[in-house]
Amino acid sequence: MSDSMLTVAVVGHTNTGKTSLMRTLMRDAGFGEVSIHPATTRHVEGAAVLANGRKVMALYDTPGLEDSIGLLEHLDGLAGGRRADGIELVIQFLDSPKAESDFAQEAKALRQVLVSDVALYVIDARDRVLGKHRDELEILGRCATPIVPVLNFTAFDDAKVSLWREHLSRVNMHAVAEFDTVVFDEVCEQRLYEKMRTLLDAHEATLNTLIEDRRRQRVAVIKASADLVSDLLIDAAAYAMFVPMSDAGQAEAALKRLRNDVCAREQRCVDQLLELHRFSSDDCESEAIPIENGKWGLDLFAPEALKQFGIKVGGGAATGAAIGFVLEMMTAGASLGALTAIGAAVGGVIGAGRSHGRRLMRRAQGETELRIDDATLRLLGTRQIMLTRALLRRGHAAQQPVSMDQPRRLNLPTVSAPKLPVTLQQARNQPAWSRIAGVDSSGYRPLAPARQDAVSALAKHVGEIIQRPADAAIQFP
Ligand SMILES: Nc1nc2c(ncn2[C@@H]2O[C@H](COP(=O)(O)OP(=O)(O)OP(=O)(O)O)[C@@H](O)[C@H]2O)c(=O)[nH]1
Ligand SMILES: [Mg+2]
Q1: What's residue 405's pLDDT?
Q2: Closest residue to atom 11 of ligand 1, CA basis
Q3: In 187, 328, 329, 378, which residue has its Cα 20 to 30 A from 221's Cα atom?
């Protein structure tokens, strides 16, 4: 069967999250207007949902139902009264002056329901089942259009999901979906489409296409995120600067530059992740991540950042101002004077034997390497993984800004230093793999195939951590 275009009306009492549901299903945080005040949406507004690059579903946002009690009384008072066919009364009402005056908002919503294949009836699940809800369901039931009730706000503790389910089954609505538009859950979205499918035989193929497309998109977005994070990690691990041991001033300048460069590179990754997940920096304040306005609250090199993300620094590691750097030395000791002069303590010595000739040469000339240490690399990985997981869970209807003390709520276990993956250890010895300082007049230098292999291998590992269950440890590696 070929895929047919499916027309869907999103209806419900005012302020239950109809426009929010539109945003989340469409992955478009810019659709319509969302506000804590009732009666925000005043007109029907449609938008297309794409699957495989084709329009498969037309979603229509509608104004909230405000006076269903009054409208039901009005319908019952029309010629024919309760005995008449429900749909005839609705049509009679829509043709009457009342549909342009007292019940204008309701009329707009009902007209859209009549021309739709299915109506999603959005419920604020924190509400008790009230008279207004019963009357709304009664009126919608008279429109001869299949209805799927959608319980919204289900992430709240006071959501009365079972109460609602019980009531809905009493009025013969058994295909109920749960869907929090702010805390996104891809399984709930899939169930919503499956519920619609049970009521819409003629559109089975379309809904299957949609379900399959969403699943594929999610796999692709996780893979693309893992690639971006791994690319950052390889860039950062490989990044090395050469400084003369004897010149404290130059070493200090290099330290500053390295720090700025790595921070800027992290920010680029954050921007890329936001764009990939279709969020902009102004709507990136999330419940679960310490990121506000698209920026991390704590500098990558702030010692508290490591603590906050539960990363323990290995023995003999640096503390204080220069945490996050390793100076690689030919002979430990020779350079200690210079190090103390720039306020840096030695974080650790990375084996010199594996380095290639050019680096050995530079060392022989009295230069040493400056680069970020293992703990900071782990922090860099952990932060982007956490951001990715939060973006995957963030509905496009989310709006709440967060205060900066939220990271403490993350409750990450403190992990001691596991070894970095082999790919990053390799990168440590390949300064040419880093593009952080690789921009010259000719643009980025070409990337070695071995680097690409390392990124791919690392991305598999990063992708696995991104997909771990909610209660698992997610620190990198
Ligand atoms: N936390 C949370 N907030 C939500 C959810 N859904 C909607 N909101 C908020 O509830 C308020 C109303 O959301 P809207 O999407 O504007 O509701 P609406 O049904 O379109 O409202 P009208 O157009 O006025 O009828 C907004 O402040 C949303 O941010 C949800 O699932 N969780
Ligand atoms: Mg609205």
Answers
A1: 33
A2: 36
A3: 378
Q: Looking at the CA of 34, which ligand is closest? A: 1
Name the 3-class secondary structure at 12: strand
Determine the pLDDT at residue 122: 98
Using CA atoms, how far residue 148 sits from 7, 50, 170, 172, in Å, is: 13, 21, 14, 11
Contact 63, 71 (CB under 8 A): no
**Are 11 and 121 spatial neighbours (Cβ–Cβ below 8 Å)?**
yes
**Which CATH code of 3.90.550.10, 3.40.50.620, 2.120.10.30, 3.40.50.300 fits the domain covering 6-199?**
3.40.50.300
- pLDDT under 70: residue ranges of the chain: 1-3, 81-83, 245, 280-293, 297, 303, 312-366, 399-417, 438-446
The domains of the chain are located at 6-199, 227-466
In 3D space, the residue among 345, 350, 339, 359 whose CA is nearest the CA of residue 247 turns out to be 339
Q: Which ligand is nearest to the CA of 124?
A: 1
Give 47's strand partners: 59
> How far is the C-alpha of 229 from the C-alpha of 392, rounded, in Å?
15
Q: What is the DSSP string of 286-323?
A: -SSSSEETTEESS-TT-HHHHHHTTBPPPTT---STTT
Query: For residue 391, what pLDDT is reported?
Result: 85
Name the pairing type of β-strands 439-440 and 291-292: unpaired
